[in-house]
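This part of the workshop introduces the protein records we will be handling. To make this concrete, we reproduce a full record directly below.
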Amino acid sequence: MEYKFKLTIEEYSTALKLLDDVNIEKQSILKLVRKCVIGGLLFLTILYTLYFYIKYNAYYGILTFLVLGFICVIIFSIYSYLLRPERINKNRLKSVKKQIAECPTILDWQIVKINEDVIEYIFNKKSLKTNLVDVGRVIEEDGVILILACDGAMCAIIPCSCFIDIDSKKNFINNLNVSR
């Protein structure tokens, strides 16, 4: 089977989003950073509250707790706003448009050939070959099928618009799943 297509900006952006989502190390680091920021803010609030409570009196301790608690809420709100998925996707789309403006060949014709036991993905005059037994996951989301190797590396990107109907798309995905 051979599929020849051109990706749109949205499809390319979706493929990059899917690659980010399956990157377990990056997701783990983001969760760790989030926990450290929240824990650090809470720790500092409690520490300064105890300091002012012991050194001065209960009034200043409670006042410090309220002020630092309010500051923590503001910082956490800003942090949450900056890491919203919608905002990240919007920024990703902007960076993809900038990338395409610098190098318009990214969205040139691409070909995915599936032979007996090899997937060949041809893009930008480069070729990427992967054995079908090395295919780890097939992800379909927002009109894009992303084929990943067992180690998480990308094997191919195929837009769902390449397929004639839903049955041919399901048949394609099932053939990839059976060959593993």
